[in-house]
Amino acid sequence: MQTLKRIGLGSAFKIGAVLSGLLFAIVGLPLVLIGTAGPLGQMLSAQTGGMFSGGIGLVFGLVLYILGIFIYAIVGGIGFFIDALIYNIVASIAGGLEIELE
Q: Is the dihedral of CA 37, 42, 45, 50 positive or negative?
């Protein structure tokens, strides 16, 4: 058995950012397409006087999608960073996780 005593904060941030960004990329695209092309897109177009109708609504949705990927990546990275920081503090007190490596 090996003991995981510490998690690198930088690597935790990177993994969290990539995982969260990928998760939003996979889940967010269908939501954006449904939102801009479906009933929500029609409602947005009606509320803005047709400003976001047609292709402009889709472009607006895709811009939000790309921004969402970056925002989710940053927030996910920060979340993993905080989790790793807390783990390191607790592991220094409790001794860490025991793992078996081959």
A: positive
Q: Residue 67 CB: number of other CB atoms within 10 A?
A: 10
Model confidence over 28-71: pLDDT tens digits?
888 777 766 666 666 655 665 555 555 566 777 788 889 999 99
The answer to whether the CB of 47 falls within 8 A of the CB of 54 is: no
Terminal C-alpha separation, the chain: 10
Helix (H, G, I), strand (E, B), or coil: what is residue 27? helix
Task: Please provide the DSSP assignment of 40-56 as one string.
Answer: HHHHHHHHTTTTT-THH
Q: What is the mean pLDDT of the chain?
A: 85
Beta bridge partners of 16: none
DSSP state, 38? S
Half-sphere exposure of 20 (CA within 13 A, CB side): 20
Alpha carbon 13 to its chain centroid, in Å, reads: 12
